[in-house]
Write a structure and sequence with these properties.
alpha/beta; 34% helix; binds magnesium ion; four-stranded antiparallel sheet; 2 domains; 8 helices; six-stranded mixed sheet; Rossmann fold; binds adenosine-5'-triphosphate
Length: 258
């Protein structure tokens, strides 16, 4: 059985009599423990799909199965780091990281006992009582990711978590995320605009076409793990990159500047 199945999901938004088809008949089968990326142009419905999986939005049609059970409209079944996931500025890093546990009703003492070792292990030791504004962008993203992780669900949705980071920090964060993923054995769904990031991290990559979002292809990444910087020099890596570039290019003809 698959960990997560997206079956014929479509979403049409209606506003003032105007219909926008955000997603049309999307199907995905995500095996347990895999790292799966979604790549596609802006506006093709990636965040919409995540909102549906997380139960925040009802689809116009289709089902989402988690361990074989339909979770449409059910919140709290998956961990979700939103595209613009901001830490609350008035809470310390520790208090931000335990937010999900607090919402679940876990006591503050127990939440802290679970969070502090994670903060220490994953590079935020000494910053527990700092406020978000006192941390670098990369550290803030780490805290937001740890908060998602502590929510403690098998499936984690990450919507462009590293979009705002510079290339060097991004590479560090990717390695860090792969470490966490292999430590915690989660099933990860990851949205990115970056082809290199998708290949470097993933087992499978779904390429989406522009609005209305539709699955264009599924690319399997058979690169050895653990992934390291050398991985990006392998022939297979370069072949995958060409394949995905072609898939995206077919949809986005270069606009000529006259
Ligand atoms: N609540 C809403 N009401 C109306 N239209 C919406 C709503 N949410 C999203 N849309 C539309 O649905 C389409 C898909 O949006 P979505 O945010 O899912 O795209 P995306 O792939 O995540 O884009 P990006 O890469 O820029 O984050 C867009 O055309 C958007 O304008
Ligand atoms: Mg989005």
């Amino acid at each position: 059985m698959y960990k997560l199945e997206i079956i014929n999901i479509s979403k049409i938004f209606k506003k003032n009599g105007v219909e926008t088809i955000a997603l049309s008949e999307t199907n995905m089968k995500i095996p347990k423990g895999k790292f799966v990326s979604l790549i596609g142009p802006s506006g093709c419905g990636k965040s919409t799909l995540f909102n549906i999986i997380a139960g925040l939005l009802r689809p116009s049609s289709g089902e989402v199965l988690l361990d074989g059970e339909n979770i449409i409209g059910k919140k709290g079944c998956v961990g979700y780091m939103l595209q613009k996931d901001l830490l609350l500025p008035w809470r310390t890093i520790l208090d931000n990281v335990i937010l999900g546990l607090e919402i679940k009703g876990v006591t503050k003492k127990e939440s802290e006992e679970r969070a502090i070792p994670l903060l220490h292990r994953y590079g935020l030791k000494g910053f527990e009582h700092h406020y978000p504004r006192e941390l670098s962008g990369g550290m803030r993203q780490r805290a937001a990711l740890l908060r998602t992780l502590l929510y403690d669900q098998d499936v984690i949705l990450l919507d462009e978590p590293f979009g705002a980071l510079d290339a060097q920090t991004r590479l560090m964060m990717q390695t860090w995320l792969l470490q966490i993923w292999s430590d915690f054995k989660k099933t990860v769904l990851f949205v990115t605009h970056d082809i290199d990031e998708a290949i470097y991290l993933s087992d499978e990559i779904y390429v989406l076409s522009p609005r209305p979002g539709r699955l264009k292809a599924k690319v399997t990444v058979n690169l050895p793990r653990p992934r390291e910087e050398q991985t990006m020099l392998l022939d297979e890596y370069i072949r995958l990159k060409q394949e995905i570039l072609e898939l995206l290019k077919e949809e986005e003809p270069l606009k000529r500047v006259e």
